[in-house]
TrEMBL record:
Listed EC numbers: 5.6.2.4
Stretches with biased composition (Polar residues): 671-709
Source organism: Spirosoma validum
Residues binding ATP: 27-34
Source domain of life: Bacteria
Pfam family, one: UvrD_C
GO terms under cellular component: cytosol; DNA helicase complex
Protein name: DNA 3'-5' helicase
Length: 764
């Protein structure tokens, strides 16, 4: 048996062993919240609670998978029966079971953001509204915001405050668009992401028998990252926990970063009110186990500037660790090179793997410079988010076929595939079918069934052919598993052939991607964790992947992770680079309308810092292209706000690409070193004004380091290293073309360095 209890501190143990009744764990970053939740579930199961009766809600499906895996180590395969996943995936499952009660069928489609926007665009057009006024992103976010506050179309239209707000935004018809959008989704037997929560609330509100069933079923409800639940999610958990009152929520108010999407930090305060102050057990965890003292204290120095926060003091017994590097670059491309170079050096000097590194940025668009630079030094990376595998055109095309085979009411899938491969069906015909369907309040499939009444000639024949094809696919659904059906559809639809015939490099890549999707379906079917092997079950699992759940491209999993800070929530890495620390980028100009917004940006920065275990580095560029124009940038105020004692200006060279070594070293370091000094001065001035502690900024030696002067390096020689200072060579090893030296440094201890990269100066 795994002894997990002994690996817990006192308050952690208290939380794990807490019996019945509401429990709120409010704790700092890296203090073991997720660990406590994991072991609490294991502990409940060990004490006889049926895993089928435990509901655990996590931020990503991947986090759920990891948690399940850990629990499995303690309780065995029983762990597979826990209801565990994101709010969206768990409630999609419940909605499928209960679909009939709210007028859906269990094979409903899930519209992704592109589908939702495409439908909104059609509606704006059909209503004769101006698409420059009714920009699809604004319309979408207003509707999404309403759903997350549980405001349906009728309430929206009748709400005078909302109406006035829309009028002042010059979009008075949003309510009508919303109503039409909801109707069209319903006719398409489709739900968008927000509907999964909205409709769950409707289901539980209007069908008390169903609510009752789940209230009794779930004896324990757990919520990780509670600070980021929105009103709609909070209500669902409250309803579900109303009978047993066994609800355990875990969160950190300092890490609340989704207010812009309707997450409500007040939930933490409401929890005590809703369950009765005297009934709620509160556990505070304040000891951080993840990061060095430097990182924990630097993070504290940032978050203490926020006014809105609960009282807690995060500390750690871990070692002090290195200071936080601040890297200044002249441009975004140089920032890419410097960061790639720093990763390369740290990796070599400390014998680390790519997985030990993460680059975190504020927006996805920043990834490009880092991708290029990492490729140049042959370091593999993975991008989480951005244009994911499942957003690629060829993948969406095949998925649309699969979706339409499962649900013929799916209007967006229909629009995507009706003329793919080309069948001579024009956009006007497709739009006409949509409009007729909307007018008759029927689905597109009903119109297709009587197509000759509405469309004449060749187009009608082509549509009939398409309908026959879909019917033939549909027949397979009950007989074959997801993989067999999908392979058949890929071939019989003509999609695979079209890609196969395209012999360009891109065409080949697209063909391989489709094969890769089929592989993923095969894996799904073969995975013993999935008890349902149908195509519908597979589609549900992919449509609910969050950005952090992404599929990896090949078998090589040792990669540097690139992702937004939002996606990094809950994760940890030995080395973290927070990049783009510039005013208007981070804090983001788009988000800064009020003090509250600034505080949310600061919490986001806090989340970023607290991902790092050992080494943290922060960088900024002096110039950056923004919407195609070169912009001068100022360092972020967050750099100034941080307690300067923990910072170190880094004097780094450009990336160690072969070409760079042809240039004299001095050229490469000059711009960065003089620049650093001015930044240090400006930091010093600003901190003096704000009366923060005086900066203690350590500098790397200013000597001219020449990497090539080590050709005849031998044991016993004294050397100076740019970072580690003075030392004595103990041994030199030759391995193929690589030469390695073992050096005993006076301060830094023994290090093994690759001589082609180590910046060493022989001391005479
Ligand atoms: N008592 C403990 N002893 C040793 N290591 C611990 C202990 N508690 C937690 N840890 C380790 O500390 C790290 C952080 O834990 P965990 O991820 O559970 O923290 P968290 O509070 O959920 O963090 P976040 O706020 O980022 O979500 C993990 O590597 C975990 O294994
Ligand atoms: Mg966590």
């Amino acid at each position: 048996m795994v002894d997990y209890i002994s690996g817990l501190n006192e308050p952690q143990r208290e939380a794990v062993m807490h019996g019945d009744g509401p429990l709120m764990i409010i704790a700092g970053a890296g203090s073991g919240k997720t660990r406590v939740l994991t072991y609490r579930i294991a502990h409940l199961i060990e004490n006889g609670v049926d895993p089928f009766r435990i509901l655990s809600l996590t931020f990503t499906n991947k986090a759920a998978g990891e948690m399940r895996h850990r629990i499995e180590k303690v309780v065995g395969t029983e762990a597979r029966n826990i209801w565990m996943g994101t709010f969206h995936s768990v409630f999609a499952k419940i909605l499928r079971i209960e679909a009939k009660a709210i007028g859906y069928t269990s094979n409903f489609s899930i519209y992704d953001t592109d589908d939702s926007k495409s439908l909104l665009r059609s509606i704006v057009k059909e209503m004769g509204l101006d698409d420059k006024t009714y920009r699809v992103n604004s319309v979408f976010s207003r509707i999404s915001g309403a759903k997350n506050r549980l405001i349906g179309p009728d309430d929206y239209i009748n709400n005078s405050v909302i109406q006035a707000d829309d009028e002042s935004a010059r979009m008075p018809h949003i309510g009508r668009i919303y109503r039409q959008y909801a109707l069209r989704c319903f006719q398409a037997n489709a739900m968008d992401f927000d509907d999964l929560l909205f409709n769950t609330n409707v289901l539980f509100r209007d069908h008390l028998d169903i609510l009752n069933k789940y209230q009794h079923k779930f004896q324990h409800v757990m919520v990780d990252e509670f600070q980021d639940t929105n009103v709609s999610q909070y209500l669902i958990t409250r309803k579900l926990a109303a009978v047993h009152q066994n609800i355990c929520v875990v969160g950190d108010d300092a890490q609340s970063i989704y207010a812009f999407r309707g997450a409500n930090i007040e939930n933490i305060l409401n929890f005590q009110r809703d369950y009765g102050k005297e009934n709620v057990k509160i556990v505070k965890l304040e000891q951080n186990y993840r990061s060095t003292k430097t990182i924990v204290e630097a993070a504290n120095s940032i978050i203490s500037r926020n006014k809105h926060q609960l009282e807690k003091h995060v500390f750690t017994d871990n070692e002090a660790g290195p200071l936080i590097d601040v890297i200044k670059a002249s441009s975004d491309n140089e920032e890419g090179r410097l960061v790639a170079s720093a990763i390369f050096e740290t990796k070599m000097n400390e014998s680390l793997t790519n997985n030990d590194f993460a680059i975190l940025y504020r927006t996805n668009a920043q990834s490009r410079a880092f991708e290029e630079a990492l490729r140049k030094v042959s370091i593999k990376y993975r991008i989480i988010g951005g244009l994911s595998f499942y957003q690629r055109k060829e993948i969406k095309d095949l998925i649309a076929y699969l979706r339409f085979t499962v649900n013929q009411q799916d209007e967006e899938a229909f629009k995507r595939i009706i003329n793919l491969p080309k069948r001579g069906i024009g956009d006007t015909t497709v739009a006409k079918i949509s409009v007729i369907a909307a007018e008759k309040q029927d689905s597109v499939w009903e119109i297709v069934a009587e197509i000759s009444k509405h469309v004449a000639g060749r187009a009608a024949i082509a549509i009939e052919g398409f309908a026959d094809l879909i019917k033939s696919f549909k027949l397979l659904l009950d007989q074959k598993d997801a993989f067999d059906v999908a392979s058949h559809i890929a071939k019989a639809s003509g999609l695979l052939k079209e890609l196969y015939d395209d012999k360009t490099v891109e065409g080949l890549a697209r063909y391989e991607n489709v094969q890769e999707l089929l592989n993923a379906i095969k894996e799904f079917v073969d995975n013993p964790d999935n008890d349902e092997k149908s195509l519908g079950a597979f589609l549900q699992s992919v449509s609910l992947l969050t950005t952090a759940d992404e599929k990896e491209d090949d078998g090589d999993n040792d990669r540097v992770t690139l992702m937004t800070i939002h996606a990094a929530k809950g994760l940890e890495f030995k080395n973290v680079h927070i990049v783009g620390l510039e005013e208007d980028l981070f804090p983001s100009q788009m988000m800064l309308e009020s003090r509250n917004d600034l505080e949310e940006e600061r919490r986001l920065f806090y989340v970023a810092i607290t991902r790092a275990e050992k080494r943290l580095s922060m960088s900024y560029a002096e110039t950056r292209y923004h919407y195609g124009r070169l912009k001068m940038c100022e360092p972020s105020r967050f750099l100034m706000e941080m307690d300067q004692r923990y910072l170190k200006m880094s004097k780094l060279r450009s990336a160690p690409s072969r070409m760079d070594f042809d240039r004299p070293e001095r050229d490469r370091s000059e711009s960065t070193s003089s620049g650093s000094m001015s930044f240090v001065r400006s930091l010093a001035q600003k901190t003096a004004r704000s009366q923060a502690p005086q900066p203690i900024v350590s500098h790397t030696p200013s000597a001219d380091f020449t990497p090539t002067s080590t050709a005849d390096l031998a044991a016993g020689q004294r050397v100076e290293h740019a970072k580690f200072g003075f030392g004595t060579v103990k041994q030199v090893d030759v391995n193929g073309t690589e030469r390695k030296a073992t050096i005993q440094f006076e301060q830094a201890g023994e290090k093994v360095l690759l001589l082609s990269f180590a910046k060493l100066r022989v001391v005479q």
